Amino acid sequence: xxxxxxxRQQKSSTLSMSGLRKNKPQYIIIHSTRKHPEFExxxxxxxxxxWAGMGYHLFLSDSGILTQGRPFELEGAHAVGFxxxxxxxxxxxxxxxxxxxx
Length: 102
Description:
This protein is mainly β.
């Protein structure tokens, strides 16, 4: 049996919404990471870059928790040229790929 996913929303205090443009999603852009297994790890990385907060709209952690990082109606910070017309989803993968583990 696979993992059972749970969801949670990011605390609004972790995202500075001033200056963010509106998002009109037409695409879902899927990213993967092997460096940051949990939401807080990615959030800290993005804040160290002095971004407004989590750059992805959604993050699926190693522990199976799906967290909303940004409201869907606000631009992301995940794909240059597509941040105002997409939803950014980042999935943790221990091998850095969206392919199954071998």
